[in-house]
Amino acid sequence: MDLGIRGKKALVCGASKGLGRACAEALAMEGAHVTIVARTAADLEKTAGEIRVMAAATGATVQAVACDITTPEGRALALAACGEPDILVTNAGGPPPGDFRDWERSDWIAALDANMLTPIELIKATVDGMIARKFGRIVNITSAAVKAPLSNLGLSNGARTGLTGFVAGLSRQVVAHNVTINNLLPGPFDTDRLKSNFANMAKTAGKTAEEMTASRRKANPAKRFGTPAEFGACCAFLCSTHTSYMTGQNILLDGGDYPGTM
Ligand code: NAD
User: Which helix (H) or strand (E) holds 36?
Assistant: First the structure.
């Protein structure tokens, strides 16, 4: 299937590795011109070079903007480099785990900044241009924690659910202009973030990280973790020309881990 996004401009945040990188790869493989963002220039440039090689045959261009996307300055740099994006993938690192009794107001503000207000600011800066051009695809990388909260990730549960509520409203106001906003909810995907979460959970449970990883893998109906490439492919489809009638959705990618019928 041709996703119809060759030549479109995509801004992909949190994209030096993991799920954000996989989204950038999948979009570039479809011929989209991608701007990737992460904080560490050397890692980001390496990733950009690798995606350029991978997508060379498609005509995609790849530019790297090293900045902290959770700051106004970082967002200004990213948006200046990408210009008027047709596709926006919001993503940043998840908040740290812990017990809510230990969190101060500043911890909550940091989580809200990174996982709720940054996506909202990026949407605010880009959505009207998308409306004017009659095409826009916005995908927020959130978490399965929106559907089923994770006990040690209260900051993530709270901040991401705030974003989800906002998107539920706005997505209905822009879809008539062929601009869609959807959220992709990762369950366990094989990335550095998953490894550090399991290491933390193992410590709390008095297990080794390997034991925790093995037991979580076994407990998943798919008997494995997702691969970033699977996540990227789903993101690229959501960004395609085929999804104009799909908006405000929360798409869970978790190997069937969430046990509900719907
Ligand atoms: P990761 O740690 O592997 O990669 C995160 C990427 O974001 C990196 O490129 C990092 O450099 C970049 N980044 C982090 N903070 C940034 C900032 N302030 N500015 C710019 N770039 C920044 O994480 P991942 O596994 O790819 O997860 C992506 C998101 O999905 C995270 O929010 C994570 O909490 C969430 N999530 C992941 C899983 C999973 O199983 N991997 C499950 C649920 C939710």
Answer: strand 33-38
